[in-house]
Amino acid sequence: MSIVLEQVSKYYGGAAAVNDISVDIADGEFFVLLGPSGSGKSTLLRAIAGLTAIDHGRIVLHGKDVSNLGVRERDVGFVFQNYALFRHMSIADNIEFALCARRVKKKDRRRRRAELLKLVSLEGFDDRLPTELSGGQQQRVAVARALAHEPRVLLLDEPFGALDAKIRDELRRGIRDIQRKVGITTILVTHDQEEALAVADRIVVMNQGVIEQVGAPREVYRHPATAFVADFVGRINMLPGTLAGANSLHFGGAAFECRHAGDAGREVTVYLRPEDVLAQPIAPGDANVFEARIDKIEFLGSYCLVQVRADALGGQPLDVTLSLNFLTERQLEVGARLPLRLLPERMHLFT
User: Fold this and answer.
1) I need a surface site. Which of 27, 70, 224, 254 has the fewest CB within 10 A?
2) Residue 68 has pLDDT above 80, yes or no
3) pLDDT (tens digit per residue) in 56-67
4) Residue 204, Ramachandran bin (φ over 0: left; ψ between -120 and 50: alpha; else beta)
């Protein structure tokens, strides 16, 4: 394993910012710490870097316990959200800074700088100042500088947060490509679910200093382990219901098939993603099919988020993802009625 965290905890004023975190990260893995503000993800990243001392537990990097070692002794590269470039220094000097501190020969520094500028697609930018570059270009310089001394671990703390959507998307793809080429173990901190799902090999979802779930992006999205994960990762419908015995539940007055057995009469909340509500004709004997009225249509480009209500759901609002072509072809507008089906295998029930 590249990184092993064992019962890592950090307290501030008696409150746990990070509480008993244990996780293993494999060599070459792109690992994402995902969670809302205050969940402890940046504190944990800074602890791995050596920028924040831990109060309990162990941090092991490549088989070496570094819990009490400084930043220089941990062999990590760190990229901050605000780039943290030296604004009075050229791009060349920024990239070579760590190499100069390590007294690397000038010839070797120039060779390494040329390699990195090519890697981040900024060849020929050596003599420019950071202020002469766009935000995305500056962040690529920050990545190059972090990689200059060939660390074994790359740590990224919300590196795309200050960029607009298009540049952020391009840069995260670029960094993922760089990570694959270099093969370096990488940990990214973000609160952006889409970003986490797009780049991660595995995601750890954090909340109030603890781990809610660890898994591959598709696993976390499709099989949330807790109500928090279901609600935080992606869009979700939350429908209060009552179990009616084995594999059956009620929303309002209608019974629906589900894949979760439980005691009859137990109240639950059903979590269901908008894409798991299907628009289809009603046939006799169909399970989980009902008719709904369209209340609202939110245009989102190639698809629309459609809010409906149905007596079968006790009048509760339900979001459905439908393609723009589907709505246009059927001339569906607000007020129209639409047959829908809930997928029982995609329902997640939490009490």
Assistant:
1) 70
2) yes
3) 999 999 999 999
4) beta
CB 139, CB 83: distance < 8 Å: yes
- 282, pLDDT greater than 80: no
Across the range 78-95, mean pLDDT stands at 87
Same fold yes or no, 3-231 and 236-350: no
Q: What is the DSSP string of 26-67?
A: -TT-EEEEE--TTSSHHHHHHHHHTSS--SEEEEEETTEE-T
What is the C-alpha to C-alpha distance for residues 235 and 193, in angstroms, rounded to an integer? 10
How far apart are the C-alpha atoms of 95 and 114, rounded to whole Å?
Answer: 10
Write the CA distances from 67 to 70, 74, 172, 194, integer angstroms: 9, 9, 30, 32
**Strand partners for 98:** none
pLDDT band per the 50, 70, 90 thresholds, residue 218: very high
Domain 236-350, second-level architecture: Beta Barrel (2.40)
Q: What letter would DSSP give residue 220?
A: H
In this structure, CATH architecture of domain 3-231:
3-Layer(aba) Sandwich (3.40)
Q: For the chain, which residues make up each domain, given as ranges?
A: 3-231, 236-350
pLDDT bin (cut points 50, 70, 90) of residue 80 is confident
**Whole-angstrom distance, CA of residue 197 vs CA of residue 175:** 15
Task: For the beta carbon of residue 93, count every other beta carbon within 10 angstroms.
Answer: 18
* Sign of the alpha-carbon dihedral angle for 199, 202, 205, 210: negative
Three-state DSSP class for 246? coil
Q: Per the structure block, which two tokens stand in for 104? A: 């690397």
Q: Please state, in angstroms and as integers, the Cα–Cα distance from residue 321 to each residue in 69, 196, 264, 281, 342, following that order.
A: 50, 21, 31, 16, 12
Are 146 and 78 within 8 A, CB to CB?
yes
Single-letter amino acid, residue 78: F
Closest CA to 151 of 99, 219, 228: 99
* Cα 256-261-266 angle, rounded to 5 deg: 80
- pLDDT class of 74 with cuts at 50, 70, 90: very high
Q: Residues 118, 123, 125, 131: what is their CA dihedral angle, to the nearest 10 degrees?
A: -50
For 167, the token pair is 């540049």
